[in-house]
Amino acid sequence: MTTGRGGRGAALLEALANNLSNRPGLKEEEPQSKQFSSGASLGRGSLLAAALKQSGETKPSLLSEPAQSTLSTPSIESKPIGRGFAAMKALLQHQQQSPMVGRGMGVSAQTSSTSLYPPTSSQASPALTAPSLANQNNSGSQDLDEISRRLGQVEVQEQPRRKERERLPTVTMIGIEGTPLDLSANYVRVKCSNPGVYLYSVQFSPPIDNRKLMMKLLIEHRDKFPTLNSFDGNIFYLPYKLPQEEVNLTSTRKTDGSKISIKLSYVKMVPPEQCCHLYNVIFRRIMYILQMCQVGKYYYNPNTPAVVPQHKLEVWPGYITAIKEHEGGLLLLLDASHRVLRTETVHDIMEKSYHLNPSNYKSDVFKMVVGCVVLTRYNNKTYRVDDILWDSSPMECFQLKTGESMTFEEYYRKQHNIVITNPSQPLLLSKRKPPKGMPPGFKMDPEFLCLVPELCYMSGLTDDIRSQFTVMKDLAAHTRVTPAQRQFAMKKFVNNVNSNPDAKKELAIWGLELDSSTVSINGRLLPMEKIIMGNKEFMAGPQCDWSRDVCRNELVSAVSLMNWGVFYLRKDAPRVNDFIRCLQNEAKNMGINCLVPFRKELVNEKIETLVQELRNSISSKVQLVVVVNPTNREDRYSVIKKVCCVEAPVPSQVIISKTIAKPDKLRSVVQKIALQINCKLGGELWSVPIPLQKLMVVGIDTYHCPTKKKASIGGFVASMNHTCTRWYSKVCIQQPGQELVQGLQICLTAALRKFHAENHFLPEKIVIFRDGVGDGQLDVLADHEVKQLHRCFTSFGEYTPFCTTVCVQKRINTRIYSREKNGEMANPPPGTVVDHTVTRRDRYDYFIVSQHVRHGTVSPTHYIVVDDGIGLKPGQMQRLTYKMTYLYYNWPGTVRVPAPCQYAHKLAYLVGESIGREPAECLSDRLFFL
């Protein structure tokens, strides 16, 4: 017999039916009655079996009727429910006992074997009465009394309700530094005339787990509830309060015609500011009313695409909407979005690859298609391609849920009126992702979907397309929107909502109304920073660009280039000669002493030849190796970095031949290369004034492999001097897809030791900029990574520095505009700060615009202080953050995120994409990854 999970009660009942001849653990010489003397060690099923055995009763058949004679001992043929549940139930039915509680189940003698319900509070401790055993011997009665006593102590607790998130107080952190600015943002104020939203819990009797069935049962009462789309499976949200606290309804289940009781119980009223999740659902409904199509996370208009026929592309215009409670109240984030789609299908790519490379086209198609997202236009849904089924075709059959068998070709012809032209093409395989909130291990039904290549359109842009200047230039005409154009798109959306009767009715039900204009903000412009070089100091300028000055003045710390080598092919020899000559001339202007390098001319383009030359030439005296590659091959680049970062550690510079091929652009290219080389050798380019003393600034970022086949890499970079111009770097390798850095404690401990070795003291203040963390991980970041930081301080004895952790978010949809005198919207200048109105209500955060953008709309960076240990004033914290955007040495200007974050990103990307292993420790004190 196979029992359920555990099933001790059923096993012992079966053994009782077989005279206990085969019970596990029973010795032949040991009497059976002795086995039950220690009933405390057995389950409730065994206790009942012992009581019945001692009272002379035998176990009835589970398949027999209750009136059947109990003198017979039939065999058990049906599979009992887990832990002897069915056997105990049949036994109790035979003895006409009152309801008993099994392990985790409440069982009623009147309930059929197929109807199982969770216990209620009244079933938690039922009393056990046994009138049929009243005349039995004393031993049986004592055993039953013991059973009653123990079962009376059993408590079945109700499943705890989901704990509501505590509403935190409003956080206001406004700075005073800087010049006032008149700004606006892409937020529209949402007005609500209703006092709030009323919550009702919904219970079905008998219970129902299928949400779709719940909705069908509620639809029968549509006349009473006009907002059925606000039911989430447990809670019914209503814009008004019902007359009664409890409402009882009855619906008919169409599958079997049974009556289902529905009970609505009033829970509470929630103010509008706490109903953002509901209002976002309402706006999704409005998007469908406006005939918008959801592609990915956002909504687009497929009826008005902008076609780029020369590149086989089209652009769908759309909108990004999100309602949240901000410091300025309930606001709707509204921004224009664009979805770039390719007019070629996967089938077109397969045909093109076959004509170009017939012998190996399958491998080429696999690289170009697998991992990409495709769009099926017959339903406007996107799918990720996980594999290609080369042995399958649209003529194969699959089984519908109704049990009917049908071919893919017949299905598309009948369901979508689409005729598949190529019946021999392979099929694409897509694995369905479970919805958010599902338990681990949950699988969709069906788990995989098969797609026809000629119906799947490629979406997004490949690296090959992005590298084509003309393609990106033509696309930018449609996707690079100016602030004035974004403002016009927002007004157009608000007018469409207010002028559409159905959309306006949907908002009116909940008492919502959109303001006609965007919010106004009083922002500030931080003071311009001073750039300090070796022999000159100058202001950064209104556009924060000092590319000319950095190449005409001496660097803060210039490293002489004495012993270095160049590796190249024979055909690139003239270009290499021009490069070396130009580098020596430009290096003098920067204060760098550059000698003539040793040269290694490669006999062929094989990677093995290059690796052998590198290994033979690199020694402890070599400062730098420069490799001129004929093409931009990733495998060749990766091999060079593996050799120069792990096997024979030395700073390396890889140059593509065509980059130094044009004489008119050679000088500007060489200047940038010279700056990179100086950084890789440990030099410093420029600095800005840092007022804080004994300060360490840390940047952390994580690299994830797009295909999830490689490990995730955590990049860690920390400053080593007062001016934050020298950096220490370290990486930690994690599981694929893991965001939060597990080895952060080890990285910071190593950085503190290096800082002490360089300065002979430990930092008193540590500011950590953590990049790449979304809103859902902010609390985990504060509880997980911050605690790792504080734990590592204990390894230095009585060392307790002040530590502040700031989360850096650059992939945001917030846009900030500057109001011009003529009323038009423009990009704000670099250094613009916004720290109120559109910031989070319950967090210490601020926005900074640190870049100057000539085309399109500038994107601010969102900074969230998750742990403020230093306690700087808001203006001081904002100025320190802005100063850090000046110190990224790969660009003579400000960057979007603080320099340590960008360094950590470059390090993690290099290790994750090319190296795959931890770089040598001797390279950790220089920016070898630029």
Question: What do these coordinates show?
Answer:
This protein has 930 residues and is of the alpha+beta class. 29% of the residues lie in helices and 24% in strands. The chain contains 23 helices and 37 strands. The strands form 7 sheets. The protein has a 20-stranded mixed beta sheet that branches. It has a 4-stranded antiparallel beta sheet with strand order 5-4-7-6. The chain has a 4-stranded parallel beta sheet with strand order 25-24-26-27, with helices on both faces. Strand 24 (564-569), helix 16 (573-589) and strand 25 (598-602) form a beta-alpha-beta unit. Helix 8 runs antiparallel to helix 9. The longest helix is centred in the C-terminal third of the chain and has 18 residues, at 663-680. The radius of gyration is 36 Å and the shape is globular. The two termini are 68 Å apart. Mean pLDDT is 80; it is low at 1-6, 19-49, 51-85, 94-141 and 154-163. Pfam families: PAZ, Piwi, Piwi_N. Residues 21-41, 56-79, 96-143 are annotated as: Disordered. One of its GO terms (biological process) is cell differentiation.
